[in-house]
Amino acid sequence: MFLLYGGLFFILLSRFLFIQVTGTAEGQELSTKAESKYSREQFLQASRGKIIDRNGDIIVEDTLSYKMIAVISPEATNNSKTPRHVIDPEKTAQVLSEYIDMTEEEIIDLLNKSIKAEKYQVEFGKAGRDISHKVMNEIKSHKLPGVIFIQDMKRLYPNGQFASHLIGFALKEEQEDGETIPVGKMGLEYIYDKELTGSPGKVEFKSDTKGFLLPNAEKMVTEPQDGDNIYLTIDTTIQNFLEDAMNKAQEKYNPERMTAIVANPKTGEILAMSQRPTFEPNTRNGLSTNWLNEATEQTIEPGSTMKIFTLASAIEEGVWDPNATFKSGSYKVHDRTIRDHNVYGWGEISYLEGFQRSSNVSMAYLLNRIGDETFIEYIHRFGFGEKTGIDLPNEASGTVSDQYPINRVTTTYGQGTTVTPIQLVQAMTSIANKGKMMQPYVIDKIVNPNTGEVVLDHKPTEKESPISAKTADQVKEILASTVTSEHGTGKRFKLNEYTTAGKTGTAQIAKPGGGYYWGRKLFLYSFLGMAPVEDPQLIVYVAVHKPDLEDTEVGSAPVSDIFNSVTENSLKYLNIQPENLEVSAPIKMPNTVGKNVIESQRSLEAQGLKTVVVGQSENVLEQFPTAGTSILSSGTVFLKGEGEIQLPNFSGWSKRNLLIYKSISNIPIEIIGEGFVTSQSLTAGSVVSDNTPVVVRLSTPEETQTTIPPEEGENMEMPPQD
């Protein structure tokens, strides 16, 4: 017995010594096993990056929501007097079916199958995610055992149907590690998914087997890194003007498709971009099989808007004579005959009148003067046939049709050759910007919100000038005459308070199997224009495909409805000087910071500037615009001084000026609506501070449209015929 027990003791002692020396047992590291038993880890969710407009308004962001889970295992109720798991699947299903997108039968089936499979808990898929705080509280009020909620993040598109094919959308997907995160599926959300996606953080700590933090145990926190914020060149107000105008045209004319772009000709920045049909990104309602951004990915035959660049080529080559005449009506190219849109023409007319009337024949004769090869060179100089380089993927390049003489003739008036809407806008910048052609772009900058680092910073890019400044100004004047001339096809595009220059277009639409559609309800109607003519601030392109027109309506009606509304409202919003006021000369903004408020105000107003003073005593603490900035002599300057702040009369203010005042005064102004101020909650002169709430309401200016009788041939420009 002594030897037996002595041997066992020796074996046990040897085992203890072996474990102590090696730190292993049964081939496993004991320290690692202990660490895994007592170490706990919780993930901290990172926010997906925001998409923000040029003024700092949120276009897309993550918002708090809840995910619903049903605990179904009886183990959850062990050692508890109150049930912590689902004890009545039928009642639970009956209640939940009133709040989530699942039937009572579907919920019962899900719960019973999961209970049978001995699962601990079950989720409800898409129906159980993105639950609002209100709905969560309503479900909780029923006190259903086992139904719990976990905080979650939802991708929110607060503007709803808003540049949807540009912005796109993201959907939640389960990753390999079990985490569910939003993943970009379309548009900017897809293109910049990597930049927008953040890195989750985690909390590491040691606890006992019941999950309680061990005494003296330290927490190790790795902070989550939110995704990058993307700042766009898009202006929310101008985009809303565009969306509203397109919605009205859609309802009135029910076209097959529409595309529209608003751009800054001086920089190439895209201020608004939309298309129809479109969809609601929060729900994807209306999303069809067409996921293309038609402004950049879809090609069209542009019709007579291409005549702008034929005219520019002729002027640049020195062969344009506006007073020379030609015989309108028809033009022979070998065995083909080119005809004007009214078939018979207008007899012997000048080239200027021919352009104003949108004569196809005038373009054919003009091509003879320019020369075929020279003309095609100019078309390429204007950027047609190649991508613009806009910061969006899958851009189409279009095709310049120049294989045969007839192709070059039809290209002069926009048939046969294909282009993208964004190419037309880029080419138009050279006309509006004194020959300087600017590359279009939609991404202003990308910023890391965790560090403030600017990851990407886009600057305006000037391309090689296709024409001289002198030519550009001459083209601009002729384009203005298409709106003001008695012969002009662009009469409907005359604005109430601003001058307009541009060109109408009516093009046949190619059939998928070859040939073209024909009929006034089957054309593509468009307008490529700029305003104001004296110093163009906006380029606006609108294209409407196959509108449902009344017998008395012309094709330019839906196009002008959109163009006129968007252009006039946007220019007012941007505080651009109307044509009926004296054109203001720019001045260099002086530095008033540190100088007396009243003296600075008098000095600025003596130069013709309008002033808004925030705090009327002592010295200037802040000014907008900053010193050295160029500003029109009739522009508005904001000066911040010391002392009490008296609220001004906001009536008629644009949203832009209101946002500047809000920023410089730090007053919590709640802005409701778009357009211009119509009312304010506190009267002018009220003394306010940074904790005084002020509500200001804006509304869009009423659209005043001048009824113009249809012009002969305005609605139908005939392509080449045999």
From TrEMBL:
Pathway: Cell wall biogenesis; peptidoglycan biosynthesis. GO terms for molecular function: penicillin binding; serine-type D-Ala-D-Ala carboxypeptidase activity. CDD domains: PASTA_Pbp2x-like_1, PASTA_Pbp2x-like_2. GO terms for biological process: cell wall organization; peptidoglycan biosynthetic process. It is an enzyme of class 3 (hydrolase). It is found in: Membrane. Residues 701-722 have a biased composition (Low complexity). Residues 641-700 form the PASTA domain. It catalyses: Preferential cleavage: (Ac)2-L-Lys-D-Ala-|-D-Ala. Also transpeptidation of peptidyl-alanyl moieties that are N-acyl substituents of D-alanine. InterPro entries: Beta-lactam/transpept, Beta-lactam/transpept-like, PASTA_dom, PBP_dimer, PBP_dimer_sf, PCN-bd_Tpept. GO terms for cellular component: plasma membrane. Keywords: Membrane. Gene3D superfamilies: 2.20.70.70, 3.30.70.2110, DD-peptidase/beta-lactamase superfamily, Penicillin-binding protein 2a (Domain 2). Residues 700-722 are annotated as: Disordered. Its main location: membrane. Its EC number is 3.4.16.4. Belongs to the transpeptidase family. This is serine-type D-Ala-D-Ala carboxypeptidase. It comes from Psychrobacillus vulpis.
